[in-house]
């Protein structure tokens, strides 16, 4: 995937299913894999959660030709990747120390990071919801049905004191 701010064209698929709720959502949405395959081929694919179910689904999306996708976690025994699929993962600190990544490392520390810290990158906004764990089902439904545009935060101890 190209650096932020560069002009490029191509298809990118970012498959993200963080945590157990996201993992279940991926399982329930397994039918979407055939639709995603039809929308490809992709120039870049990544999973922002690294869960085994999502990685296995991306392996299927890359079929029949295979390919490579980036992950935030290394490959594990629970992942069922086809032989023609390669998962790319590396510790960021290790990546920046490799001689072949010198140009990226210079860009990251000289251009991107100062801009990001200076406000050029907007973090996902948070919404704190009242009601503690008693409201988790409602929050999940809001996320899955597209009624939550922010990252939802529930305090698990809030219902203890109510």
Automatic annotation (TrEMBL):
Gene3D superfamilies: Medium-chain alcohol dehydrogenases, catalytic domain, NAD(P)-binding Rossmann-like Domain. It comes from the Eukaryota. This is Unnamed protein product. It comes from Aspergillus oryzae var. brunneus.
């Amino acid at each position: 995937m190209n650096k932020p701010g560069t002009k490029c064209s191509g298809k990118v698929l970012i498959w993200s299913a963080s945590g157990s709720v996201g993992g279940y959502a991926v399982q329930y949405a397994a039918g979407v894999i055939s639709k995603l395959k039809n929308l490809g081929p992709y120039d870049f694919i990544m999973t922002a959660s690294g869960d085994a179910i999502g990685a296995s689904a991306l392996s299927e999306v890359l079929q029949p030709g295979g390919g490579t996708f980036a992950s935030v976690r290394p490959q594990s025994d629970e992942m069922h990747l086809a032989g023609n699929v390669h998962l790319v993962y590396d510790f960021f600190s290790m990546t920046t120390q490799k001689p072949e990544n010198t140009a990226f490392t210079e860009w990251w520390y000289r251009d991107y990071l100062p801009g990001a810290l200076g406000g050029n990158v907007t973090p996902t906004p948070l919404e704190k919801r009242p009601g503690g764990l008693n409201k988790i089902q409602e929050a999940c439904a809001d996320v899955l049905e597209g009624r939550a545009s922010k990252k939802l935060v529930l305090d698990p101890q809030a219902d203890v004191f109510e």
